[in-house]
Amino acid sequence: MGKNLELHKTAEELEARVKELEAKLALVGEVFRDGDLVYREGELRGYCSRCWDVEHKLVHVVAIDRGRGQGRGNGCPECKNFFWHGHATNPRMK
Ligand SMILES: [Zn+2]
Q: Domain extents for the chain?
């Protein structure tokens, strides 16, 4: 591969990385924590705090089966964490 082509490729990769980081930064300003969940301004449902902390992914907490006949609870479909408290709705939107 020629040097110019290599540099061009590197520049494109950096540009993509910058865009990705900018998108994450914008989210950090919008996301806040309440108890074990994180919320986003203007969004009613809470997100998994573990996925946000570890991976900076916003994964909605949903009603999923807890297994072993325990019925359904609020859980993260991505990391399978359960959040035992009842409400999973944005406290700023009450
Ligand atoms: Zn999760």
A: 3-93
**pLDDT tens series, the chain, 94 aa:** 688 889 999 999 999 999 988 888 877 778 999 888 999 988 898 999 999 999 989 999 998 888 888 888 889 999 988 887 556 788 888 6
**CB neighbours (10 Å) of residue 28?**
10
Distance 1 CA to ligand 1 centre (A): 41
Per DSSP, which regions of the chain are E strands? 31-34, 37-40, 47-48, 62-65, 72-75, 82-83
Distance from the CA of 52 to the center of ligand 1, in angstroms? 7
